[in-house]
Amino acid sequence: MALKKEDYPISVQFDFNTGVFEPQEKSVERKVSDMVKMFHDKTAVESMIKAGDPLVYEIFYYGFKTSASDMALGTTRIQPGKVGDEYYMTKGHFHEAFDQPEIYFCVKGEGYLLMETREGEFQAEKWTPGTISHIPPMWAHRVVNTGKEPLVFVATYHLAAGHTYTEVEEKGFLKCLVEKDGKATFVLNDKRK
Ligand code: PAN
Ligand code: ZN
């Protein structure tokens, strides 16, 4: 059977410093206004939006679809910063499909990967460059940048995974990461008290 165009191998070139790769299919920006429900200090959220609505993170994306499979590559660059006392982070989501895991590879910066099941199991992985984490199916996942430089990580997953954000938007994760006395500190999420 003749191969289609999409069935040929392809490579992209990744920059470890910026987190950008080329060619890419698309990039997406998330600003504070896209994450109003995620940060706990609503007054800080409003004043930051009024003061210019800063960029929190960007996603650079390529979906490798072939006739028989689909694999996605996404790199994420989270800026350093805080909303109130809470560090910048990704929105976080569950995969829609019950059997879809993901691999995350931290290449720059420092922070934490937060994961939680619907049954309330919570686990946080400390990240430094070189940490590779496996996110099993049915664990919501979010990355928090607790450092002073951009945090960059590479993700691979199947497009069949799908993304669902509403539960994380409503309930958050069990714990938040805030700066206390100059240090990254876990505190119980207000919504869970
Ligand atoms: C990642 C995430 C990316 C941005 O590619 O989509 O880091 O985080 P949010 O999707 O939570 O905004 C991934 O986990 N894909 O499944
Ligand atoms: Zn995911």
CATH superfamily: Jelly Rolls
Number of helical stretches of at least 4 residues: 2
Class derived from helix and strand content: mainly beta
* H-E string: EEEHEEEEEEEEEEEEHEE
Choose one word for the global shape.
globular
- Major sheet: 6 strands, antiparallel
Unreliable runs: none
* CATH architectural name: Sandwich
Which molecules are bound besides the chains? Answer: 5-phospho-D-arabinohydroxamic acid, zinc ion
Task: Count the domains.
Answer: 1
Strand content bin = over 45%
Mean pLDDT: 97
CATH class: Mainly Beta
The order of strands across the largest sheet is 3-4-5-14-9-12
Distance between the termini: 59 Å
Q: What is the subunit organization of this protein?
A: single chain
Description:
The chain contains two helices and 17 strands. The protein has one domain: Sandwich (Jelly Rolls). With 193 residues, the protein is mainly beta. The model has no long low-confidence stretch (mean pLDDT 97). The radius of gyration is 17 Å and the shape is globular. A six-stranded antiparallel beta sheet has the order 3-4-5-14-9-12, with no helix packed on it. It has a three-stranded antiparallel beta sheet with strand order 11-10-13, with no helix packed on it. A two-stranded antiparallel sheet has the order 1-2. The chain has helices spanning 42-50, 166-171; strands at 13-14, 21-22, 26-31, 55-65, 70-78, 82-83, 86-87, 94-95, 102-108, 111-117, 122-127, 132-135, 139-145, 151-157, 163-164, 175-180, 183-188. Strand 4 (55-65) and strand 5 (70-78) form a beta hairpin. The termini are far apart. Bound molecules: 5-phospho-D-arabinohydroxamic acid (PAN) and zinc ion (ZN). Zinc ion is lined by residues 93, 95, 102, 141, 157.
